[in-house]
């Protein structure tokens, strides 16, 4: 356990997602400024066996999950927030045999939509593998009916 409640909330969220367990995703850091998840390098997620480069789908999953879970950094209580839209711009392939980190922040929160942005990197956040922007629908706390309205 950690003394950081945001890391604990993010880890609980992450542990409920089976595909993230299979990929071995873990919480690296969490603060009000954003969330960082770690995708460990594995031969099971290689996209090109000749080069050992990680498949883009694994990085897409990392970034969708990072953006989605970054909502715990800005919301006072857990809410269900499914992905509405996700755009990833790949800058260059990940280097083989190295873990990939995904960082995301929520830059705008409305009553109905949360807007996120972030990047994937390996050794240096200033040299990103990919940039991401995503929007997530706020559906409210589990078991709570959400009232309609515009973003």
UniProtKB/TrEMBL annotation:
Gene3D superfamilies in UniProt: Hotdog Thioesterase
InterPro entries the record matches: HotDog_dom_sf, PAAI_dom, Thioestr_dom
Species: Metapseudomonas resinovorans NBRC 106553
Highest taxon, organism lineage: Bacteria
Keywords, ordered alphabetically: Hydrolase
A GO CC term assigned to this protein in UniProt: cytosol
Pfam families: 4HBT
Protein name per the record: Thioesterase domain-containing protein
Record GO terms (molecular function): 1,4-dihydroxy-2-naphthoyl-CoA thioesterase activity
Annotated ranges, domain Thioesterase: 52-127
């Amino acid at each position: 356990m950690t003394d950081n409640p945001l890391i604990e909330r993010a880890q609980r969220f992450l542990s409920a997602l089976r595909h993230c367990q299979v990929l071995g995703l873990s919480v690296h850091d969490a603060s009000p400024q954003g969330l960082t998840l770690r995708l460990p390098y594995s031969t099971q997620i290689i996209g090109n066996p000749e080069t050992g480069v990680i498949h883009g789908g694994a990085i897409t999953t990392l970034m969708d999950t990072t953006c989605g879970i970054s909502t715990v950094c800005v919301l006072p209580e857990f809410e269900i927030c499914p992905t509405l839209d996700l755009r990833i711009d790949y800058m260059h392939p990940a280097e083989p045999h190295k873990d990939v980190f995904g960082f995301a922040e929520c830059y705008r929160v409305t009553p109905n939509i949360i807007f996120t942005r972030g990047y994937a990197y390996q050794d240096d956040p200033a040299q990103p593998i990919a940039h991401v922007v995503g929007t997530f629908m706020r559906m409210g706390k589990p078991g709570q009916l959400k009232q309609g309205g515009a973003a």
